[in-house]
Amino acid sequence: MAKQTVLGAETLQRDAAALFSFVDSIYTHCHKEDDESPVYPESSLRFFGFIRELSDATKAYLNAFASNAPSTPRLYQAYRQKLDTIRASWLEFHFLIKSAVDADTLSFPYTLVQALTERLNTIPKFKDIRFAIFHFDELNYLEVPVSAIKTTTGRLRGIVPECPEFPRDLGLIGIPYSQSSSLYLNLLIAHEMGHFVFQELNLKDELLTDMGRNLEQVLGSELQNISSDNLDWSKDRLASWSEELFCDLFAVWLIGPCYSLASVELFGLTTILDPSQAIGYSATAGSVAFFRSHPADLFRVKRQVSFLEELEWWNEIDSINSHYIDVLRSAKAVDDGDFRYQTTEQDYAHETLQAFLV
Amino acid sequence: MSSESEIRSRYLALALDARKLIDALIAFVDQEKRNQELEQSLQQVIASLQPVGEKKDLFSPDRTRLAFSEYYEQVRTVEDALKPAERGQIVEKLQSIRSQQTDFQKQKEDAYDAIRLLSAIESRALYYYRPQP
User: From the candidates B8, B36, B55, B108, which should be mutated to test the interface with A, based on the most A CB atoms within 10 A?
Assistant: First the structure.
């Protein structure tokens, strides 16, 4: 049997060099400011610039990785593993950079994004915010995880010195590439802006106490018998549903009823209309079902209608002769008791839903 | 369902938070350096990992500050990576380093143990993060 290579500074150097090449290969895909085409908005150029700085800091760190290794051989393995974590972070960026490169100004609704951003900028705290756009293969606008990059870069700064801070006034929005020219569906970008606002304002922290109180109200003394990880599971569902609902209402505030009408289209909710029923609709199983991360489609639209009433939009649209408006009217009539959340993942799904509806 | 990539990002966040403390502990045992970074990381990780006294404490924002207990997937990953006894052990070791009430050699040994346990969490989180072929 061949003798195994002795692990040490030389092998660390080699592993760090391999990672250096990987980071460099991602870096070369970033658009440079002096490239003439394609054309990107200023926000995307800032994103590329940020990734280039991040890449420079990572490569500088990797250059010295072997020489900075701890002198104690007992620490070798723990130190070496850091390369895997840095590599995983760059895998995350790799995915996003391709998506950003694809989103030049000819490939996404630039004017619409600009108009929505200007509306957001009327809020003093968000007056300087700009958004970089990403193109994704996923059709669903509501599941694009671009906010995760901020989390990752923030944490990477904790382990790679000299990493730049993610620009505070830069938001990230992903849109499905196949829908870039669909005005109606692109109005859902307003929902994505809601995620940015929710996270910037740390609203989850503010809601945690309410979530605990609501669960306590629903579960009563049973709360003490539930394992911590089951409660963590319930907390995650409540937090996720709350954030999605906030984003919907934020979008309604931002662009009014267009958002609700776009939601009806995206969710395909016109199928609930049923003239054979006295009430004019019959909720389908899919429309009243809560998902792991999102409230039920009809629930979301129902809450939007309530908010449209509060904002005095409803009277403006109620008389419009459209089956989309009929869907909104039907959603308003659905009883909260009709909503369901079924999962095999945990035993307290029903109670978790009730805590959300309290 | 949450998007798969969003959940994967939670595992990456856990690996990065574990790594931050591993780095500070490596500097502590190798260079015998006790810096502010170490103190701050110890405090945050202990708060994040120690068992909750009352169920309502699960909803405290302090507990969700780090990725050891921010999301359900992260809590489960820590449970998968460590044996039940090790979960209590890691908090004890970190508290011992933080309090400085034992001699330095003992603190170093505790740091070695904590590095081993945190590396196990980091490794498991990276395993879950990687896209499966």
Answer: B55
DSSP bridge pairs for A279:
none
Q: Indicate yes or no: CB of A229 within 8 angstroms of CB of B79.
A: yes
**Band of the pLDDT at A185, cuts 50, 70, 90?**
confident
Q: Between chains, do A144 and B3 touch, taking CB under 8 Å as contact?
A: yes
| Residue A1: inside a domain | no
State yes or no: pLDDT of A218 exceeds 60. yes
Give me the percent of chain A exceeding a pLDDT of 90. Answer: 60
Q: Do B59 and A211 touch (CB under 8 A)?
A: yes
CA distance B97 to chain A (A): 17
- A194 and A223 in a single domain? The answer is no
Choose one of A157, A178, A199: the last residue of a domain: A199
The answer to whether residue A214 is domain-embedded is yes
Residue A16's φ and ψ, nearest 5 degrees, are: -65, -35
Could you tell me if residue B81 is inside a domain?
yes
**Triad B15, B20, B25: Cα angle to 5°:** 120
Alpha-carbon distance of A144 to A160, in angstroms, equals 27
Total structural domains within chain A: 2
User: What's the CATH code of the domain at B40?
Assistant: 1.20.120
Residues A86, A172: one domain? yes
Distance CA B89, CA A148 (A): 31
Closest chain A residue to the Cα of B77, Cα to Cα: A229
Query: Do both A256 and A329 map to the same domain?
Result: yes
Among candidates B51, B59, B71 on the partner chain, residue whose Cβ is nearest the Cβ of A212: B59
Distance CA A346, CA A279 (A): 35
Q: Please give the model's pTM, rounded to 2 decimal places.
A: 0.87
Task: Tell me the CA distances in angstroms from A348 to A227, A230, A355, one per residue in order.
Answer: 11, 8, 10
Does A4 fall in a domain?
no
Q: Which of B26, B56, B126 sits opposite A70 (nearest CB)?
A: B26
